[in-house]
Amino acid sequence: MDRDLASVLSQEEPLLGNIQDISHQVWFLQDQTLTAVPRKNCVVPVTVTLIPCKCPETLEKDKGNPIYLGLKEPEFCLFCTKVREHPMLQLVERNIMDLYYQTEPVKPFLFYHSQSGRTSTFESVAFPGWFIAVCSKAGCPVIITQELGKTYTTDFVLSLLH
After folding, report:
1. pTM, rounded to two decimals
2. Strand, coil or helix: what is 78?
3. Has the keyword Cytoplasm been applied to this entry (predicted)?
4. Cα separation of 112 and 125, whole Å?
5. Could you give the domains of the chain?
6. Where are the alpha helices (DSSP H) in 76-147?
7. How do 86-93 and 119-124 pair as beta strands?
8. Average pLDDT score, the chain
9. Is 31 helix (H, G, I), strand (E, B) or coil?
């Protein structure tokens, strides 16, 4: 994906793709909640939108590429906030390109995308050490966690649409 991120810096459109975990659960929007469900014939995964942050100050050595991550339809962006002293992942109705054109990085919407082989992780910029995750049980919401490799899966396969 890194080859595409460099070229998208000068593009007017975000990259589009699908995300699934290593157990073949895809991201699916259910009643405005992003969930992970098994890939089946009747399941249409959400199309994610991603575009790098163009502010160089967000680059951090060995963290990955800072990106904004959203959904194509309906138009939502993933957003990290604190609820009762605990970081939470939420969907906010927002155009991803509005974030891209900001003069300062909008950290609650930013994730470090790191790729190792075929799998990717997405770490919150606003909450370092917290990663986008899903549980192994079907129908669970997509969350952020700091418990890597324990209860939740934080490794995903990002398939870009061409």
Report:
1. 0.90
2. strand
3. no
4. 6
5. 2-160 (2.80.10.50)
6. 96-100
7. unpaired
8. 88
9. coil
Confidence of residue 1 (pLDDT cuts 50, 70, 90): very low
- Half-sphere CA count of 1, side-chain side, radius 13 A: 26
Cα 33 from Cα 80, distance rounded (Å): 14
94 is written with which tokens?
């927002």
3-state secondary structure of 44: coil
Residue whose tokens read 């075929």 = 118
Render 95-142 in DSSP notation, one character per residue. Answer: -HHHHHT-SS--GGGEEEEEEETTEEEEEESSSTT-EEEEESSTTEEP
What residue type is assigned to position 136 of the chain?
A: S
Element (H, E) at 5: helix 2-8
Q: Which residues pair with 26 in a beta bridge?
A: 20, 37
